Amino acid sequence: MKKSLAVYAVGAYLFLHVPLLILAVFSFNSSRFTIWQGFSLTWYREALGDRDLLEAAANSLIIALAATALATIIGTLAAYALWKRSHGPVARAVAGSLYLSLVTPEIVTGISLLALCQWVFRFLNLRLGMHTVILAHVAFSVAYVVTVVMARLRTYDPALEEAALDLGATEYGAFFRVTLPYLAPGVAAAAMLAFTVSIDDYVITSLVAGVDSQTLPMAIYSLARKGVSPVLNAISTLVVAGLGTVVLLSERLRAR
């Protein structure tokens, strides 16, 4: 039984990761086709020399960093509030509704956010742009942050905070000096997860982005529609390596 489970696990991992490995290998191929003709960094130089791709990557980083900062702050405070009132019916209903946002199809979320922006902008005389993308990313990233931080809070002993209050600390002081340091690994893991889902998003971003807010996933999709290019292999390898590192760090922090 154990051997069959091990074989199944290995097969599943190979199915998931062999295509990525092949992609990475051919990103170093000197040929434009899937026939190995020699090692080369040509496609990386071409990708890093493309101004449109660099601008899209810069937009993605700005959006992801801003959305991560906002989502982490909002999500951490929301998780703490839900934890403090975890026995109330309202808190349980709100906590349960978070999972709805996680399972809602991205196309539905994107259309609803676009409709909201169009309705609000009738009164504010604004247009779609970086600000709408950041707000949209915050909207779907908060649920991830709350979920991760809540998992950390379930292992937290409320007596520590109560002891700080008994010793004269204010509620804010107890939170910032006792609770928040304990939550720090979970908060960091949540921030990395939010960054990953933000910088990788295409569907929602494409619906709420303006003409001056093209992100890297949007640029990659635009290139892919023109045909398979080795430049895409190089870009995809860089993205996978970067996001993979962030995910591994996130899991390591979450396990602390």
Structure summary:
The chain has 256 residues and is an all-alpha fold. The protein is built from eleven helices and no strands.
Question: How would you describe this protein?
Answer:
By secondary structure, this protein is an all-alpha fold. Helices cover about 80% and strands about 0% of the residues. The chain has helices at about 1-25, 40-50, 50-85, 90-105, 105-125, 130-155, 160-165, 170-200, 205-210, 215-225, 230-255. The model has no long low-confidence stretch (mean pLDDT about 85).
How far apart lie the N and C ends? Answer: 31 Å
Quantity of strands, as a count: 0
Secondary-structure class: mainly alpha
Number of helices: 11
Apparent shape: globular
Residue share in helices?
Answer: over 70%
User: Major sheet, described briefly?
Assistant: none
Integer-rounded radius of gyration = 22 Å
Give the amount of beta strand, in percent: under 5%
The secondary-structure element order is HHHHHHHHHHH
Report the mean per-residue pLDDT as an integer: 84
Poorly predicted runs are none
Per-chain topology:
Blueprint (H helix, E strand, L loop, with lengths): L1 H25 L15 H7 L2 H34 L4 H15 L2 H19 L5 H24 L4 H9 L4 H29 L3 H6 L7 H10 L4 H25 L2
Helix pairs in contact: 1-11, 2-11, 3-6, 3-8, 3-10, 4-6, 6-8, 7-8, 8-11
Note the main attributes of this structure.
256 residues; mainly alpha; 79% helix
